[in-house]
Structures are given as structure tokens and as C-alpha cells.
Amino acid sequence: MKKFIVTMIALTSITAFAQTYSVDSSSSKIVYVGKKVTGEHTGSITLKSGSLSFKGDTITAGEFVADMNSLTSTDITDKEYNAKYVSHMKSPDFFNTEKHPESKLVIKSSKKTDKGLEVTGTLTMLGETKPVTFVVTDLKKTDAGVTGKSNLTLNRTQWGLKYGSTSFFKGLGDKAINDEFTLAVELSAKPTTAKQ
């Protein structure tokens, strides 16, 4: 009986300090930047769904799903070239969205640093799951919800995306594409459990 009471107290304590949020996809955005020898390309990807769990001001868990078929180009003004570029990005050369229509980020834990909230987790893309670490800045929590920003720098070859990479192919010249690309994320989420 004593063990049962202790367990119930512990569970109540966890619940009292935990709060979960559901991502507002319409107010959240992901902007990518990919660079190559001759310049760079920018565009967006839609956040399909997501959730966050907090204990105080630290993120204890989370999961986000990006719709890879929503990928757009924002720097190419020519309509025909824009469509060709987006089609190539969705092809097996790059994100192969027919086979892998979603990418998923799972947050495992976080800790406060002088730069912001350092988050660790895994990113599943192109069927490969790899560890990632990034910093969340401008994190704000109110009764209405939570907002935050983060910049992720990813080496695409870790997920098997080797097209145009000088790490695997020689003599590419001005067709070479940087292994690293960045994602600028702006997140907005609403509470799904009342703060206790």
C-alpha cells in the first residue's frame, strides 16, 4: 500500500509540472537554404503536424512531421525553371518524395545553455534516422501557447543524399552542391493540456 501511494504521488507530481502543446501549422514555417558553387536556392517546407512536452522551461519530448511534397522554391522567378527545379528536388536524386513523403524529427531531451535551449533528438529523412542537436532561441511561453526559433545545419550525405557531392564524386566543377544545407524554423504551438 505504501509503495502504491508513493507511486501515485510521483505521477501526480510529474503531471503537475508537465504541459503539452500541439503545433499550429498555419503559424509555423520551415525555410531551407541549399548552396552550390554558382549560388544558392531557397524555399519552404510545410510542417504537417507536431507536439511538444515541457517540464518548466525545458522540452522533455516532441515529435514533428514535415510534408516533403510541399517543398517549394522561392528564389526562382521563371515559372518553367521553378517547376523543373522543384520536380528535381522531389525526384530520387534528392528527397524522393514519392517513396518518402514525410520527414520526422523526434526530440529526446533538452538543456539550458547560454545560447538558448540545446535540444537533442533524431531526424528521419529518406528512410534514414540520424541523431541531431540544435539550439532553440527566442523561446516564449504564455497561456496562449509557445513560440520559438531554431537554425539547423544538416549534412545531407548522412541521410544518403549524395547527388552533386564532391565528397563522393570528382570533377563536378560548377555543378557541385554543398553537403550542408540549413533549415530556419519558426514554431508556434498551442497548449493541449492546462497548466497546473
Description of the structure:
The chain is mainly beta and 196 residues long. 14% of the residues lie in helices and 53% in strands. It has one domain: Lipid/polyisoprenoid-binding, YceI-like (Lipocalin), CATH 2.40.128. Strands 1, 2, 3, 4, 5, 6, 7, 8 and 9 form a nine-stranded antiparallel sheet that branches. A hairpin with a 2-residue loop joins strand 5 and strand 6 (116-125). The longest helix is centred in the N-terminal third of the chain and has 16 residues, at 2-17.
The arrangement of helices and strands along the chain is HEEEEHEEEEE
**Total domain units:** 1
- Helicity level: 10-25%
The total of beta strands comes to 9
The class by helix and strand makeup works out as mainly beta
Q: Roughly how many Å is the radius of gyration? A: 20 Å
Low-confidence stretches: 4-16
Shape: globular
Q: According to CATH, what is the topology?
A: Lipocalin
**CATH architecture tag:** Beta Barrel
Number of helices: 2
Q: How many angstroms does the end-to-end distance come to?
A: 27 Å
The percentage of residues in β strands lies in over 45%
